[in-house]
Each structure stands twice: as C-alpha cells, then as structure tokens.
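Task: complex structure prediction.
Instruction: return structure tokens for all chains below.
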Amino acid sequence: MVDFALSKQEQKIFDTAMEFSKKYIVPYARELEEADEFPWKLAQLAFDAGLMNSHVPTKYSGPGHSMVDETLIGEAFGYGDGGVATTFMANNLALTPLLITATPEQMEKYIKPFATGKEPQFAAFCLTEREAGSDAAAVKTLATKDGDEWVINGRKCFSTNGHIAKFLTVFTTVDPTKGYKGMALHLVDKELPGIEVTMLEDKLGQRASFQAEIEFKDVRIPDDCLFGEVGKGFKYAMQTLDRTRAGIAALGVGIAQRAVHEAAIFANHRRQFGKPIGAYQGISFMLADMESRAMHARWATRYSAWLVDQGQRNTKESSCAKFFATDAAMQNTLDCIQIMGGYGYAKEYPAEQMMRGAKLTQIYEGTNQIQRLVAGQAILKETQVTELDTGFRLSYSGKDYPDPWGPREGKVPDFWSKSKSKK
Ligand code: CAA
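Output:
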C-alpha cells in the first residue's frame, strides 16, 4: 500500500525543524541577511537541536538521519530563509562524499568530531573551479603523491562556508589529461600552511550564506586524507550530488510553500474594490497554481530521497526534483510579489528576499539546465526500441511496453504511411 504519511519519528523531526525555523530564522531573516557575518549563534542552536550533520551515523554519535529526514529539515530551513538553509545544509554536502567513502578509521578520526564536539564544526565542499563549473570533470587542482604525503596545488571557488570551515572536501586530479578518470577525493585541514581564502564579497541574495575562493599552494596532507580510490573522485562527486540535490529540492519546497503562505495572508487582508483581493479569481487561481507547484515539488523531493533510503539509484529523480522544486520556488516567489504588488517589492516584507534567495537554488549544485541534461540522458538510456519482424518492442526502465504502432503488416507504421500518402 502506498503511504504518504510521515512516520511518528519523521513528523517529530519535521515539527522540531519547523519550530526552530519559525522561532529562530523567520523573525530574524532580514537581520541575518544584513549582518554580513556568519550566524554562529544560530549554528550553535541548530547543532544543539540535532538539525545539523544529518547523515553522521549514530554509531559515530551523529543524528543518523535518513535522506527523507534531511528533506524535512531542508524544507523547514528553506521556509525560514534560503541563505541560512544553505549555510547549515552545506555541511551535508561536504560530509556526504566522506561518508560514502570513509574507512572505519577515517570515520573515527575525521567524521566523529563533527558530532561529538560542543560547538558546531563545519566542512566545505570544494568541487567547482573557475574553469570547471558545469563541466565538473575538468578540475585542475592537482594532488601529487610524495612519500607518505599528498601535495595539493590549485584553486577552488564558490565554496560555501569555505572561510569558516575546519575541513575542506577537495575534488582533485592526479592527472588532468585523464579527465574524470584521474579524479580523487582528499580531505584538507584548512589550518595547514599554503591555504589562502578569499571571500566572494557580494551577491544578489542568500546573503546569510558565504562563499569563498580557496587557493592551495604546496599544501601537504597525510596519506589517510585520501578518501576512497584514486580515479573514482568524479563518481563520488556525482553520487554525492544525487543525494544532496534532493536536499536542495527540499529547500526549494520550503521557499515555495512560504511564498504561498505569505501571498495567502496578504490576499485575505488586502481589500480593494470593497473585498479582500483573494475573493477575485485572478488572485485565487494564482494561489492555487502556487500551492500545486509546492505540493508536487514536495512529493517529487521526498520520493527522490526515499529512493536513496531504499538503496536505489536516484540520479534522474533527484535531478527532476531539484529543477522542479527550485523552479517552483522561483515562480512562487515572483507570484507572491505580484500578488502583494508594491508591498511585495518593498523590503518591509519578506517576499523580495525570498525571491532573491530562490534564484540561487536554480543555479547551485548544478544549474537547472544541467539537471534537465542529466534527466534527459537518463530517460534516453532507459528507453530501448527493438525492431521485430512483427513490429517494435518498446522497453522503458527495464519494463516492456506495448508496441505503440502495432499490430500491423510490414515494417511501416500505419500512421506513418497515412501521413506520407497525404503529401
Ligand atoms: N552516479 C554514479 N556514476 C556517475 C553518475 C552518477 N550520478 N553520473 C555519472 N557517472 C559516471 C558515468 O557512469 C561515467 O562513468 P563510466 O565511464 O565508468 O560509465 C562517468 O561518471 C562520466 O559520466 P558522464 O560522461 O555523464 O560525465 P560528464 O562529464 O558528461 O558530466 C554532468 C556529467 C552531469 C554534466 C556533471 O559534470 C555535473 O553534474 N555537472 C554539474 C556539477 C555541479 O553540480 N556542480 C555543483 C557544485 S556544488 C555547489 O554548487 C555548491 C556550493 O556550495 C555553491
């Protein structure tokens, strides 16, 4: 039986995260955005509430949350503010490739302290380079083996929390001529000599999250900072993004849902021509479309996360959820501003900040064009058409479908010969 209800435990996680968001993020979102400083106090509260480092297993003192749990937390954080949500969820992004690859010794030494410390500890995901954005396999940050150490040289950019992180999760190459087959994954302690951090100073929205450019000049790290196998770094990056794109989708759901609520409150109270503006179909139809987008985005998101929890690959589903949910967030926040008119455009209300925050969700962790590319390629791969003497066999996602053009005589489908004879 299909069951759309959250379990008791999932509901508790969602309620805790939503309560946190309503208490600590929503009322201070403008302040946090304008403060231009890392929200340490808030991070401490989120850490104490068990809302950070979701996937660190309970065996290593972490919350041991599932992927579905992460989408519940992501939705609640996104409801509060896109920037704050990104700041906290970036730790999941940075820790996921490590969790995929770590040996028990690496888990004890490097991952466990994220859960056992008294204060929140941050890691930053370093994949993107100036010349390797959508083309993630083009990384040039070089890792060279020297005795029992690795030496790292290169430059990463757009690394969320790169400035305050304790560790950097760095996708390197041992040989740039090998393309993705030369890539590796290294963990770099940011306090090591040879690391220089430059902040990305200003941006349109999500200003409570911070991105940095990080330069590595002959940075020496011990051998046990290689995670997984040399040559598999690209695969680890893709497996990570399969998971974390569901998290970004969840963030989009939160923004999209908040936009519905803000618009509905306004539409109920704002009176024009003697009635609340929500009484006009022009507005209520917009609200219905907005709610529908948020609702569809939520189920696509949870489904893509649920697949991970079932141990199934979710590449196509997480890409679809990511672009659908974040496009929904963008459209809903634009519609929210439109419904609120001049008030929506004014900084006195949250709508314009939500809209600026939504824009980034369509860009990071793979632009929505890249998501469509990933999904489109997966669909074509899953579809096979075999020509038989009696017609065609159509197979989609491993299951046979009826021949859409048969039964018929000869090899030419009826509709094809008819449309040809019309000419
Ligand atoms: N899981 C496992 N393996 C995968 C995979 C996946 N999801 N996707 C690809 N692979 C494997 C393929 O099977 C292939 O291996 P084989 O040759 O052994 O079969 C190999 O990886 C290469 O695959 P492709 O040929 O498909 O790779 P590509 O070079 O064409 O790239 C891409 C594909 C989807 C465009 C990828 O480069 C991509 O996702 N780009 C976007 C990068 C991105 O999202 N960056 C965001 C950075 S993080 C950020 O923004 C956060 C922040 O803090 C600001």
